[in-house]
Structures are given as structure tokens and as C-alpha cells.
Design brief:
The complex is a heterodimer of chains A (about 140) and B (about 400). By secondary structure, chain A is mostly helical. In chain A, about 50% of the residues lie in helices and about 10% in strands. Chain A has one domain: Sufe protein. Chain: A, CATH 3.90.1010.10. In chain B, strand 7, helix 7 and strand 8 form a beta-alpha-beta unit. The chains are: A mainly alpha (about 140), B alpha/beta (about 400).
Chain lengths: ~140, ~400
């Protein structure tokens, strides 16, 4: 049985809890960003760009066995780290689970400042985009 | 702390006491504010003027017969006078209060819609802020005029020769900034104004980035329009001025209709008020205008020469220190520039650097700085921009440099 979104989020929160200060948290995020699997270049197109980010973020989604799989990339490494965290939590789940998932864990891992809708990195836009994909694919499954 | 400055009278520690915000912490570190080109901080003398206005003589101006209204009118018009003197305008009514530089530009652009004809040419420079590109593009769409661009070189300087060569009798207007917001380049505006006048074209100079560093003399420049914002020069946001030569301001139609800007109104015909009120429809930002006057007083008390000298020291110091960092690339290396440094390190994204600097309490601007054509020229998504003011110190620059090094090592 694979883990639920909730379980993965708790796991991520636990990992971040090991760090004492912001620098370690950001270093870890940068590491996660570097480790994000490469997106297929053909998906780095304008339609997959998320608006509202100062850096470019591409997110692609496709359905595999009723599960939504996300791949992404960004030209900024911290943004890439943030999107990597989101993908780890949300990718490979049924669209309905993605739609229902809450995002409180972002707060819990000390990235609350990135949640402001006016923040240039567009974390809010990223979450919205992932959920939009889920809604779109959910309608396909119905 | 002693600052090695040629100007003994300039005491940065004393000056810093005027800026309460400089004492605050950001993310657990003392704030180092290096985003002065976006907006400057406010000295308590200016805050006092704001508090004084609301505490003692808040009233609508120009209309009331009562004493408060008269006092407010006197202070507001007094501020106009101060601004006139500061920019050495010939007449007080050549100073129009606006909501800021963008408003001033739009006011002039809108007025020129009735003057321009199809096929006329208007020029902007490659170094412009979007606010000095978009209104003119809109104007061209409306009138059929053609937009031409003064090109720039690798150092971020305008190529004057191209302008000189292509300027023609068809040219009706030229618009450029005095100082580039993204790179800090000081443009050779006097040369451009004179050349444009030879062909009978009017010139508008966007002085938003110059005003905090250079005291422009509009008569000596012989410029037709000069626009500034108060908030870049220690004043509040939401207020600025448009200087225009009287003959031009008389020629342009009013920008907005409303109270204040009329002489008589009937349903058959409305006659417009005299300058400057013709362009000041509605109740203005009274407090803002008065506070702008206080800001001008504050900066003049320190002295623009002293400010320029000190900022140049900061700029030189920061430039040398930054260049010691491996992989550092500076954009805008003109010898004539204000205290602005735009840079990237290797292929690191400016956003990443800016985010980490913020975590260390250092405020810089990242991105395209509303000057995408410049970024396209250099083929980069943006830069990190540190912009210095007379209240910054070398110690702050040291902290900035250390933070940049730390960010680089974290990101590489």
C-alpha cells in the first residue's frame, strides 16, 4: 500500500524538523531542487508555465493508472526545491485525493513566508495549478 | 564608527538617526536596505510634516474661507514653491502636482494625442522603464505615429550617434530617463535635448531615478518636461511633480475633468482654470505635497553635492568588493552612473540570490526591474540590483558582500 498524501506530508515535516535554522532548511530545499528528476524538454512550453512567478516554473501532468503524475522544472533552484516538495507530496495519487489534500504542511516546514499570495515565487499559484490539473483529470475519470 | 569620506561635514551616523526604520531587524538580522532605487526610506522630519498636517491643519485647499483651509493652502502652495526652486523652474505654475512619475508621463502622452499626426516620429531610449515605453506605444497606436528607439551598447550607455543620425524633421517628441533604473547609467540628456530642439521636437525627461542623486536645473537643461516621484527622494508614495514649460502646458489639453481644474462650468461650455490647476483635477494629495516639500528641504539641508560624493564612495567600494567574487558579472558599467549595481553570478538565478539575501536581512531588488528590453539586450531573465543611498554605510556593504558570498556558496 503506497503512502497517502497526508503521510508523505508528515514525513516531509519530520525531515524539516531536524534543522535548527533557516540556512539548513534552505540548503535542504536547494538539494531537493537539484535532485528533482528532469522534465521532458518537450513539456517546457509556455502552456505549462505557471504565471505569477518571478522565476519560470513548468509543470506537466499526465495520468497513469488513474494516478496523476507530475513533472516540473524551474530556472531558479529554490523555486525548484519548492516545486520538488509539492511534487513529492502530490504526485502519483488519484486526482480526487489531490483535490482534497490540504497544504498546511508548507506552514509546518517553516516556509510559511512563501505562502503569501503576493510572494514572487508563486507557491500559491503552483498549488493552484496542481489542483487544477487534478480537477481536469478527475472529470476525465468520471 | 568613522567613515572615510572627503566631506567632513557628512556624518552618516547622525543622518541614520533620522531614519527609524534603519534600526529594525529583518529575519533576525539588522536590516540592510539596498533597494533605494525602488523607494527611499523616510526621515522623521518628513514623518513629522505628515503628522503635523493631520494633527493641526487638515482641510481641503483652495476653496475654503476658513482658517484651516487657508493654512493648508499656504503650506501646499509653499511646497510647490520649494519644488520650483529646487528644480529651478522659472515659474511656480510650471510645477504640476501628480501622483508620481507615471502619472506625469501619462498626462503628457495623453496631451500629445491631439498634437501628433500619422507618420510623425517619437523617440524613446533602450534604457527605459516600462512606464516610459507603454504610454508612448499607446500613443502611437492612437495617432499612427512611429516609435523609434535610441539603442544602447554593452556598457549600458545610449549610442548618441545613432540618435543623431536618424533624428529628422518628422521627430516630434523624445522621451528618456535621466538615469536608468535598472543599470544606473546617467544619460547625456543635455546633448539629446539640444539636438532634439534643433529639429523642433519636444523632450520629456523621466527624472525618477536621477532626483535622489542629482539636482536637475530645468532651465539650464532647457528641458520641456521633467517628471519625478517624491518617494524616491525621501518623500511619501503617491505624489510627484511634472515640470513643464509654460508654453507647453498651455498647449496641452487638460488630462482629467473634475473640480479644481475649471474656471466656469455650464452645460454649454466649461472654461478651464489657469495653470497649474488645469492639470490638478479633484482634491489633490495635500499632505503628500507638503511632505514632498519637507523631503526636498531635508535633502537640501544635507546637500546634493555631499550626497553625490558620499554615494560615489559607496558605489566604488561596493563595485570593487563585488568584483572580487568569482563569476561576478556587472551590468551597466558606464563611467557616468549613480549608486546602482546590477549583477548576476555565473548562471545563478537572481531570484535565488535575492531570496537568500532577504533571509540574511538584506533588501535588494531582483528581476527585470520593469525594463525588459534591457534584459533582452543582455539575454538574461533579470539581475540582482543593489541601490545605495546616502544613509547606507560601508559596514552595510561589507555585510551585503558577505551575504552574497554565502548565497553563492549555498547555491553553487
Amino acid at each position: 500500500m503506497s503512502k497517502t498524501i497526508q503521510e508523505i506530508q508528515e514525513e516531509i515535516v519530520d525531515e524539516f524538523a531536524m534543522f535548527d535554522d533557516w540556512m539548513q532548511r534552505y540548503e535542504y530545499m536547494i538539494e531537493l531542487g537539484k535532485a528533482l528528476p528532469l522534465i521532458d524538454e518537450k513539456y517546457k512550453i509556455d502552456e505549462n508555465l505557471i504565471k505569477g512567478c518571478q522565476s519560470k516554473v513548468w509543470v506537466h501532468a499526465e495520468l497513469e493508472d488513474e494516478k496523476l503524475v507530475f513533472t516540473a522544472d524551474s530556472d531558479a533552484i529554490i523555486t525548484k526545491g519548492i516545486v520538488a516538495i509539492l511534487i513529492r507530496a502530490f504526485s502519483n495519487h488519484h486526482p480526487s485525493a489531490i483535490i482534497e489534500a490540504n497544504t498546511k504542511f508548507i506552514d509546518d516546514i517553516g516556509l510559511k513566508e512563501h505562502l503569501s499570495p503576493t510572494r514572487a515565487n508563486g507557491l500559491v499559484s503552483m498549488i493552484k495549478q496542481l489542483k487544477m490539473y487534478a480537477v481536469a483529470y478527475q472529470t476525465q475519470l468520471n | 564608527m568613522s567613515i572615510a569620506t572627503n566631506n567632513i561635514a557628512f556624518n552618516v551616523e547622525e543622518i541614520r538617526k533620522d531614519f527609524p526604520i534603519l534600526n529594525r531587524e529583518v529575519n533576525g538580522y539588522p536590516l540592510v536596505y539596498l533597494d533605494n532605487a525602488a523607494t527611499s526610506q523616510t526621515p522623521k522630519q518628513v514623518m513629522d510634516a505628515i503628522v503635523d498636517y493631520y494633527s493641526n491643519y487638515n482641510a481641503n485647499i483652495h476653496r475654503g474661507v476658513h482658517s484651516l483651509s487657508q493654512e493648508a493652502t499656504d503650506k501646499y502652495e509653499g511646497a510647490r514653491k520649494k519644488i520650483q526652486q529646487h528644480f529651478n523652474a522659472e515659474k511656480t505654475h510650471e510645477i504640476i502636482f501628480t501622483s508620481g512619475t507615471t502619472h506625469g508621463i501619462n498626462l503628457v502622452a495623453s496631451g500629445f494625442a491631439s498634437i501628433l499626426k500619422k507618420g510623425d516620429e517619437i523617440w524613446v531610449s533602450a534604457l527605459e522603464h516600462h512606464s516610459n515605453i507603454v504610454p508612448w506605444q499607446m500613443l502611437c497606436e492612437k495617432t499612427g505615429a512611429i516609435l523609434k528607439v535610441i539603442p544602447m551598447n554593452e556598457q549600458g550607455e545610449l549610442i548618441y550617434e545613432s540618435f543623431e543620425e536618424l533624428l529628422s524633421e518628422k521627430t516630434k517628441m523624445v522621451f528618456l530617463n535621466h538615469v536608468s533604473n535598472a543599470l544606473g547609467t546617467i544619460n547625456p540628456i543635455k546633448k539629446i535635448i539640444d539636438k532634439a530642439h534643433e529639429k523642433g521636437a519636444a523632450v520629456l525627461i523621466d527624472g525618477a531615478q536621477a532626483a535622489p542623486h542629482i539636482k536637475a536645473d530645468v532651465q539650464a537643461l532647457d528641458v520641456d518636461f521633467y517628471v519625478v516621484s517624491a518617494h524616491k527622494m525621501c518623500g511619501p508614495t503617491g505624489v510627484g511633480v511634472l515640470y513643464g514649460k509654460e508654453e507647453w502646458l498651455n498647449k496641452l489639453p487638460p488630462y482629467q475633468g473634475g473640480g479644481e481644474m475649471i474656471a466656469t462650468v455650464s452645460f454649454e461650455k466649461t472654461t478651464y482654470a489657469e495653470l497649474p490647476h488645469k492639470f490638478e483635477a479633484g482634491t489633490p494629495n495635500i499632505c503628500g505635497g507638503i511632505a514632498f516639500g519637507a523631503a526636498i528641504d531635508y535633502m537640501n539641508a544635507i546637500g546634493f553635492e555631499a550626497i553625490a560624493r558620499y554615494e560615489e564612495e559607496l558605489l566604488d567600494y561596493a563595485t570593487i568588493k563585488l568584483q572580487e567574487i568569482e563569476g561576478m558579472k556587472l551590468y551597466g558599467t558606464s563611467r557616468e552612473k549613480t549608486a546602482v549595481i546590477s549583477f548576476n553570478i555565473e548562471s545563478l538565478h537572481p531570484y535565488d540570490i535575492g531570496t537568500l539575501l532577504d533571509k540574511m536581512g538584506i533588501a535588494v531588488r531582483t528581476g527585470h526591474h520593469c525594463a525588459q528590453p534591457i534584459m533582452d539586450f543582455y539575454k538574461i531573465p533579470g539581475t540582482v540590483r543593489a541601490s545605495f543611498s546616502f544613509y547606507n554605510t560601508k559596514e552595510e556593504i561589507n555585510r551585503f558582500i558577505e551575504a552574497v558570498k554565502k548565497a553563492k556558496s549555498m547555491l553553487s
